[in-house]
Specification:
The chain has a single domain, classed as Rossmann fold, CATH 3.40.50.150. The protein is of the alpha/beta class and 200 residues long.
Length: 200
């Protein structure tokens, strides 16, 4: 899997573009900058955008090529991000807690999905926020990107079960139009979640 993403990201072109995901950008505009964790961040578009808004960014991905491009983008935009080389099960911030954790099109096998979702949102501060956008199984009928197997796509009930300790503020399955580089173009079926960790 790492080799697959390294090969994909080796292209000089930013395959998901250099501008942020619209759902993430809209939610960050509602929040005061703090610390944000971006798992499976790829080429860095969301991390660099958040850093430009004043967020303290900690991103990670398994792809060395993705990290290289992310750091190049950060340099070009005169921002600073922390970007570690890790897979989804290997992240440990050593007691640090985050104001936001954002899963933007982070698709993973069913055998690790629930554990990764719960473990990483466990690093939220009380009152911290989860921002998530992911493809649903209806995305198989579209040509706008995403995994080509239903096992890597999500249903609303799965997402509900993955985050039992969070308060869901906005939660919907919807159709959107993606314009995120050459690999995310056109009509898409997505789940969007904005949730908060209780203060207690």
């Amino acid at each position: 899997m790492k080799e697959q993403w390294d090969e994909r990201y080796a292209s000089p072109e930013y395959i998901y573009g250099t501008e942020p995901n619209n759902w993430l950008a809209g939610k960050l505009s509602q929040l005061s900058p703090g610390s944000i964790l971006l798992p499976a961040e790829g080429e860095g578009r969301n991390a660099v955008y958040a850093a430009g808004l004043g967020w303290d960014v900690w991103a990670f991905d398994q792809s060395e090529e993705g990290r290289r491009k992310a750091l190049n983008l950060a340099s070009a935009r005169k921002t600073t991000i922390r970007y570690d080389l890790l897979d989804l099960t290997g992240f440990d911030p050593g007691g640090i807690k985050f104001d936001v954790v954002a899963f933007i099109f982070v698709h993973m096998p069913v055998e690790i999905r629930e554990n990764v979702h719960r473990r990483l949102t466990g690093f939220l501060k009380p009152g911290g926020y989860l921002i998530l956008e992911a493809f649903t199984s209806r995305q198989l009928a579209n040509t706008s990107g995403g995994p080509k197997t239903a096992l890597l796509l999500y249903e609303k009930n799965q997402i509900m079960e993955d985050f039992p300790d969070l308060d869901f503020l906005e939660f919907a399955e919807t159709t959107t139009i993606l314009d995120e580089g050459p690999l995310h173009q056109g009509e898409a079926s997505v789940i969007r979640l904005f949730a908060r960790k209780p203060m207690k």
